[in-house]
Amino acid sequence: xxxxxxxxxxxxxxxxxxxxxxxxxVLNGISVALWDSDDFVETAEEALASLRAQDYQEKIxxxxxxxxxxxxxxxxxxxxxxxAETVSLLVDVAPAVRGRGIGSALLAAGEELAAEGGRRxxxxxxxxxxxxxxxxxxxxxxxxxxxxxxxDAGDVRFARRHGYQLGQVERSSELxxxxxxxxxxxxxxxxxxxxxxxxVSWFGxxxxxLLGAFAALKARMATDIPQDGIAVDRxxxxxxxxxxxESELAARGEPLxxxxxxxxxxxxxxxYTEIAVPADGAKAEQYDTLVAxxxxxxxxxxxxxxxxxxxxxxxAPHITxxxxxxxxxxxxxxxxxxxxxxxxxALTGHWxxxxx
Length: 356
Hints:
The protein has 356 residues and is an alpha+beta fold. The chain has helices spanning 18-35, 44-52, 102-116, 154-161, 181-191, 211-219, 221-224, 239-251, 300-315, 331-340; strands spanning 2-6, 57-66, 69-79, 86-93, 121-129, 139-141, 148-150, 165-176, 197-203, 256-263, 269-276, 283-291, 321-327, 343-354. It is 32% helix and 31% strand.
């Protein structure tokens, strides 16, 4: 087994892209084995669009090769914001070759990249579909929140064995669409109490007149969300960065549908939520949802989520499942999700390690 750096190809369907396309196939196989579905399967076009988006994150991919076949990878993502101290590692190994040290070798190579890049804090992640969570077994808990990850799960044991601590658990939740009429009516009554605000929506491209305000609001995601047990870099968001994200998601075929709440008295944006909308398939993913701290308590989370779901029915009536992710300790947002009818889909462990 050897580890080599993978260079993103300039085009697909060429000899140069063969290794990249092979890797996409391996990762899709890993995903299907984990989730027992194709929910997170990517086309080569989608994967390449994400890897090419390097203006604000440097992404380095190393692959493990055995008998001339790719059997795993580690992707290191370096935020390029000034004073950033973290790096995120995604480690994946084909199920058929696990238990032979390939994951450990990839993780060590990723940590070496982190050290060479001057990063002190390394993040890694484990995924736990709801059907794998058995009640009553031993669990590992983060410093905040009520959920725990199964202590006997292979990837949990792997993370702990390599010196990682569980900093946060995220709940992945699923909502079936359309909303039942009675539930939607109740949510609408709640949203109507958000006096002094109005919803503003766009699909794929933020209005120029709101671009700066939207960028400022997105910057608050790194400071206003729960993060008791993890180190998080502050992020600088500008209009150019918003446009870069829009371009990346458009290239993936998943433009963002956004609803923001505008404060009528000041004109500033007080809350927003996003859905990445694929052109086909039944599943969409909700990305950021944020209510800026000074505006909390005004039912804005319900307002923007309900309005965006209604917009989703207009722009993409084929979507019947919506996935979202929230920190387990984010009690107010989880309460809003329950009111909508979201149910547990999975738990994600956010693990961190400080390099010597």
